[in-house]
Amino acid sequence: MSDEGRRPAKVEDVHALALGMPHVTVERGTAGNPVYQVGRKSFVFFRTPRPDAFDPETGERYDDVIVFWTPSEADKQAMVQDEASPFFTTSHFDGHPSVLVRACRIGELTHDELSEVVQDAWLAQASARRASTWLRNHEGRQ
C-alpha cells in the first residue's frame, strides 16, 4: 500500500474516484447534489437530508450522507455490522444493496479502502460487459 493509499480519505476523493471509473456521468439531484451513474444507474450519490438519517441526540437530519451501492445484501450487512466501520443503513434502505456514510466520517477510511468501495459500487451497477472489461484490465492491480 502506497503512502497515498494509507492516508485518510477525503470527500474530494469520493468525487475523483467515482469520476475515474469508466463510462461515468454525473447527474444532479433536486438540490444540485451529485449523482454518479454508469449506464444511467446510480452507484454513488450525495443524499439530501432525509427524515430517516438523523442525529439521535438532537433529531437534526444529517446533511452529509453519501450512498454507495454494494455488490450484495451480504456485503452490505458485513459493512454495517462491523463496529469499526463508519458505514450505516436506515430502515429506508432495508432490502436495498447500499450503505450510507456521513461525509464527516469518510476520514475513518483510507484512500485505498474508499477506492475499493467506489469500485465495488461501480461494478455492482455497471453492465456485465463493462464490468468484465474493467476487471480484466485491472487484474492484479488491486
DSSP summary: helix tally: 5
Name of the top-level CATH class? Alpha Beta
Largest sheet: 5 strands, antiparallel
- For the record, give the distance between the C-alpha atoms at the N and C termini, rounded to a whole number: 10 Å
- Total number of strands: 5
Q: Kindly report the CATH topology.
A: Aspartate Aminotransferase, domain 1
* Radius of gyration of CA atoms, rounded to a whole number: 15 Å
- Portion of residues in beta strands equals 15-25%
Going across the biggest sheet, name each strand in turn: 1-2-3-4-5
* Poorly predicted runs: none
| Helicity level | 25-40%
Descriptive notes:
This protein is an alpha+beta fold and 142 residues long. It has one domain (3-127): Aspartate Aminotransferase, domain 1 (Alpha-Beta Complex), CATH 3.90.1150.30. It is 34% helix and 18% strand. The chain has five helices and five strands, in the order H-H-E-E-E-E-H-E-H-H. The chain has a five-stranded antiparallel beta sheet with strand order 1-2-3-4-5. Strand 2 and strand 3 (41-46) form a beta hairpin. Helix 2 (11-20) packs across helix 4 (111-125). It starts with a helix and ends in a 5-residue tail after the last helix. The model has no long low-confidence stretch (mean pLDDT 94).
List the helices and strands and how they pair.
Layout: H1 3-6, H2 11-20, E1 24-28, E2 34-38, E3 41-46, E4 65-69, H3 73-81, E5 98-102, H4 111-125, H5 128-137
Antiparallel strand pairs: 1-2, 2-3, 3-4, 4-5
Helix pairs in contact: 2-4
